[in-house]
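Hi support team,

I've been running sequence recovery on a batch of backbones for a student project. Most finish fine, but this one hangs at about 90% for roughly twenty minutes before it completes. I'm not sure whether the input is malformed or the queue is just slow. I've pasted the structure tokens below so you can try to reproduce it. Let me know if you need the job ID as well.

Thanks,
M.K.
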């Protein structure tokens, strides 16, 4: 149960892309006392620091949006060690501190805790004798991972995020673990923060200066043909998550006192990276040529799940990422 008498809400990772939206969203309620902490205020990898500072502050709700998100660097020894500290053990320390003072902990995880090979659902009543029934005729399965699906990460980053989930669940019962995917929104205030995929692709589309040779058989082009444009991976199907929408949904979960546990919060309309860029350029009226390619064109240290669509079975769905993207683009004009 959430202590409604304690309106003190601590947001950790407050300068990040999500953290800044959480602070803004919770401050809209004048009754809330929102405390915004970032790395200079608390070291979540230091158990003593966490316990001392949170025990002194005594918030009713702790929201942890701090994360190590360098997916490829996590494949290196030092990067993986840091990912386990920040994404894995840190959330466990926060859970212990939350339990000690009776606070509720909100922690964010990732679609990368899954292996990219979801089970394909069958229609109710299917006996696998397709020649004698028409159950599959109009059946469109929802392919992805729901909240109860078994995690099986295929990258070190995914392993560190799963470790965080396990540490939270092990150390407190009053928690919400919210999984998200492909976060986008206004750039973080934090120093050296990563830009979102849409920001990177928008910048690339506006520049559009490089001339690339096209390999034979790619997008119907002839060997040696030149074009002005970008090549984008047409794989890795999942959903985008708009930071302001996620912050608002987090507030709704807490205010509704939803049962503690795991939730999936993503915007609707799963797509590949390539399909997302087409939508971006359509909305911004950019004429940049976009060439779909396989992931083999851009080899990366960390393996990505081929399908990591998060299926939400517990909450009202968020709007399409296309509508969220339209709002975001309007906000940065």
């Amino acid at each position: 149960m959430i202590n409604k008498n304690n309106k003190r809400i601590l947001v950790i990772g407050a300068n990040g892309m999500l953290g800044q939206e959480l602070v803004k969203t919770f401050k809209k309620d004048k009754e809330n006392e929102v405390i915004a902490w970032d790395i200079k205020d608390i070291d979540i990898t230091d158990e003593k620091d966490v316990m001392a500072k949170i025990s002194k502050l005594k918030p009713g709700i702790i929201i942890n949006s701090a994360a190590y998100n360098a997916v490829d660097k996590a494949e290196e020894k030092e990067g993986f060690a840091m990912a386990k500290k920040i994404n894995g053990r840190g959330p466990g320390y926060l859970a212990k501190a939350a339990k000690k003072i009776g606070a509720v902990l909100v922690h964010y995880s990732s679609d990368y805790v899954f292996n990219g090979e979801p089970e394909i659902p069958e229609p109710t009543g299917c006996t696998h004798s397709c020649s004698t029934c028409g159950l599959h005729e109009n059946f469109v399965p929802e392919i992805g991972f729901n909240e109860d699906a078994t995690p099986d990460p295929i990258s070190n980053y995914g392993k560190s995020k799963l470790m965080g989930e396990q540490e939270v669940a092990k150390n407190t019962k009053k928690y919400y673990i919210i999984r998200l995917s492909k976060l986008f929104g206004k750039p973080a205030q934090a120093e050296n923060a990563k830009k979102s995929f849409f920001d990177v692709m928008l910048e690339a589309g506006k520049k559009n200066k490089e001339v690339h040779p096209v390999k034979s058989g790619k997008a119907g082009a002839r060997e040696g043909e030149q074009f002005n444009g970008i090549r984008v991976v047409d794989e890795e199907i999942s959903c985008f998550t708009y930071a302001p929408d996620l912050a608002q949904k987090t507030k709704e979960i807490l205010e509704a006192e939803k049962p503690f546990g795991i939730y999936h919060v993503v915007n609707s309309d799963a797509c590949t990276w390539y399909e997302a860029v087409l939508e971006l350029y359509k909305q911004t009226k950019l004429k940049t040529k976009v060439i779909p390619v396989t992931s083999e064109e851009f080899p990366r240290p960390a393996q990505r799940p081929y399908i990591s669509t998060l299926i939400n079975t517990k909450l009202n769905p968020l709007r399409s990422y296309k509508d969220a993207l339209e709002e975001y683009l309007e906000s940065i004009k």
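--
Follow-up from support: It reproduced on our side and the slowdown came from queue contention, not your input. The chain has a mean pLDDT of 90. No action needed from you.
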